User: What shape does this take?
Amino acid sequence: MNISKNSRAEMAGIFFILPNLITFTVFVIFPAISGFYLAFTDYSMLRTQSNFIGLENFKTIFSDFSSSSFLRSMLRTFVFTAIFVPVSFFFSLFLSVITTSETVKGKNFLRTLFYWPWILSPVIVALSWKWFLDIDAGFLNIMLEKIGMQPKRWLLEPNLAFFWVTVVNIWYVAGYFMVMFNAALTSIPQEVYDAASIDGANKWQRFWSITFPLLRPTSILVLVLSMIMAIRSFELVYVFTKGGPGNTTMFMVQKVYEVGFQDYKLGLAAAMSVVMFFVLLGLTLIQFRYMRQEE
Amino acid sequence: MKKTFFVVLLINIVLIFSAFVVGKDITFATFIDGPDLPVFQKQVAAYEKETGKDVELLVIPYADWKMKMIMMLQGGTPPDVARETDVVYLQDYALDLNPFIKQYTGMEPMEWLDTVTVYKSWFKTYSLEAGMIPAIPYTTDVFALFYNKELFRKAGIEVPTNGVWTIDQWYDAMLKLKQSGVRYPLVWDRSPSRFSWLLYTYGGGYWDETGTKIILDSKESVEAMEFFLKIHDENLVPQAVWISGDAPLKYFQNGLSAMYLSGTWMLPTFVEQLDFEWGAIPMPVKRERYTYSGGKLIVPLTEEGIELAFYLTNKENLAEISSALFLLPDRADMTEVTYENKMVQEANVVAMNDLLNTSPAAKKRQDFDWYNLKTAPVIQGNVSAITNMVVSVLTHEKTPEEAMKNLADQIRKEAGLQ
Assistant: This one.
């Protein structure tokens, strides 16, 4: 049988992607489809039998608005995302401007310092900050006591705990996005700035009229990535506050984990994941539509 | 060069797959409490030498234990033997050991059951109701209220030696400790079952003594919760443990807390890590004297594992593991237990006394809540809801009545009582 050169090339391509395709199908596609099915059952890991219950799980989700409910955790996640995304964007851009500025000394050291949190495990980051903010033996409260101030319940007051969860998450990711901005900033040709200087533009004008627009592709990437990170927040927050005090720092993913792997109600947890999927899909479609309109 | 590369690649693939193909004869899965690992390794090695079989000791962290076990069971690849704390969820997978008891122990099944359920009366009830014997009781541990003797001496407090404190006397002791400069008189494990102790001593619980009614929102249960809230509000107990999931041991270990409500499974950790004199106080009493007894069982999940299961639970091996972990062996002919370590021995005597004097009614409620085939699953499936309920009260999001009524109604609905 004569196989043409093109067909052979095609077959070779298929064989090269086949292992990845099989792995992807077995470990991503199949579980996702199973998850969709489980969402309509009362499957509990404590029992071997499960029954099809239609939309009961979704009714349970949408009829519970208590502080420990999935809906409230979803709302909390959106509030967190609404703060996390812009603050981490501008903060990492600020760090990038500092670490690429010609007038700043010790740029390499600063770059390493700002990037350092990102290379640590989120568990280490969470534990370190937890100890730092501990009400009894935390460094911050010890310093406050030394200067005659009352120690604060940093992680026991809901608003303070939420504040610190946001701050620590931003601190953790800023270095990562800073590196992306660095790559983009250093690729902007110097001639563009020289031309603007000749035309009389000052530093701020050069930044807003040249730098910021030229950073657009990287900015979009940073915004999308930071939104995904915020919505998927789990391990750092779980180790840091366990979703407390009360449930004030419990986000969506932790709620799904709690229902699925602590209460073993996998059917209900799967239903929550389905809701999460459609919410994320909606947000992503809105974002892509916005990006296309801008183009 | 290409040829060499492919030969090396092929060898690697064969080696990797051989690790899956050339398996051990028997898998024994367990979590580790500390000094038990070397004991298990020694006993497994002795078994291998005696029988010529290969045993894989599969150690799984306790935090992942139940999930990992469920996944293995539902995936059809259970370990041959497992050391367990709970058999309720294993009901559909466990073997009936009835036909094997005489062969491996020389005793008739009922005689054997009486011998091994000296501390686990629930297991006998469970086996009779289920019509099968799904596991071998192994060791028993007991809730205990540990205390720092040095801090108590400094506060001038004497612990009861010929009786027990009432809850009010215990509260007074906490106030005295606070006045003497102790940061937190008491630290309490963040666990629904540890919290449940308070419900039981107040005369409350989740299921009643008949296992037919939910009593979480009864007057007695609410009163217990109010006490729990009070000692947190007055800063007698660190709020960070229940509200934010802070680790309780560090408070006791660092002298920030004078008392620690936990259990005898902590004894090996205390011996290893505490650098002060400590002891145990009899569990305080409100309406019913009560201490929670739990522990471990050895569960063979395949026929290949039955022999190893009985081997691990023979008198000699049982004595060895109990001694290493300072636990009570589950045998009526091994109840006389003494330990060389003076503090461990004292704590053990106090815990045994609590156990022997536990109110039968409270014990019945405990068994229906955590061990009964029909009633326990609904409580076990609401473990995080129970924790959330307690936290919602401690953060003043809900009143005790409100929080407990909500959860009680939810449990009633899931149990089909509404």
User: Anything to note?
Assistant: The mean pLDDT of chain A is 89. Residues 65-294 of chain A form a domain with the MetI-like fold fold (CATH 1.10.3720.10). Chain A touches chain B at residues 44-48, 66-68, 134-137, 153, 155-156, 158, 161, 241-242, 244-247, 258-259, 261-265 (CB under 8 Å). The radius of gyration of chain A is 24 Å.
